[in-house]
């Protein structure tokens, strides 16, 4: 540096300062760009969080209110009434189920010495009832001599609130 004139030294120092200032400005510009990008992402995430909170509140409200109406009548007596309407109450055997899902009631229905059309009528009335009932575990066997059926199945309903 000693062979350079004062003017040349000042020019080199000025160039270093200019490069340093330009690099600093570029760095600040990149920092501001990243900051704006992160603020936009933050705003999007906050909107998503608000939406999740609103949906969560709606979900809790839906869970509190029953989505289907609940049968007020006892399930056993309801099944007996259907059997009585079909005049097959003498062929009916009911057992209350104890191992059912929480929030449901269930009965096991046994029907003996029954014709196929009466069984189908019984199942149709149960399956198409409102409020909804669910039938499951259907088992049918045929008596070979008199061509009558023996059937068993389960009927479930949603419990009252």
Question: How would you sum up this structure, described in words?
Answer:
The chain is 51% helix and 23% strand. It is α+β, with helices and mostly antiparallel strands. The protein has two domains: 1-65; 75-158, 2-Layer Sandwich (Alpha-Beta Plaits). A hairpin with a 4-residue loop joins strand 3 and strand 4 (148-158). The longest helix has 59 residues, at 6-64. The radius of gyration is 39 Å and the shape is rod-shaped.
User: Beta-strand level of the residues, as a percent range?
Assistant: 15-25%
The dominant shape is: rod-shaped
Give the rounded overall mean pLDDT: 85
CATH level 3 topology of the largest domain: Alpha-Beta Plaits
Short recap of the structure:
By secondary structure, the protein is α+β, with helices and mostly antiparallel strands. It is 51% helix and 23% strand.
Summary keywords:
single chain; 161 residues; alpha+beta; Alpha-Beta Plaits; four-stranded antiparallel beta sheet
Walk me through the topology.
Layout: H1 6-64, H2 75-85, E1 92-96, E2 104-114, H3 116-127, E3 134-143, E4 148-158
